[in-house]
Write a structure and sequence with these properties.
It is a single chain. The protein has about 120 residues and is α+β, with helices and mostly antiparallel strands. The chain is about 40% helix and about 20% strand. Strand 2 and strand 3 form a beta hairpin. Helix 3 runs parallel beside helix 4. The protein is globular and about 50 Å long.
Amino acid sequence: MDHNKAIGKQRTRRRFRVRKSLRGTPERPRLCVTRSHRNIGAQIIDDIAGKTLVSASTADKSLSKSVKYGGNADAAQAVGKAIAELASKAGVTEVCFDRGACKYHGRVAALANAAREAGLKF
């Protein structure tokens, strides 16, 4: 089997396994992490209403000026801190963490730890 196909199937299985038990509610919305090679982003989503409450990304103008490159752990820490600050302004204190198809390692873990330090409860 082609290596890229195998990796894609692993990611698909992991995404379904992680998301089958997560649902964002108004009391405890879902913190969804999106990771690419050049950027990382996070959204806080209320799945019942189908609305994104707040979002932050290294592609945003506010963060892209302070971050040189969006594909490293320093950028992920900046996004984690920014999403926690935006969430507190929106009145969100508790979230459930949705890493999607990404492993809880490296940039994803750095974002989660920075959000915890800035005041979000997982």
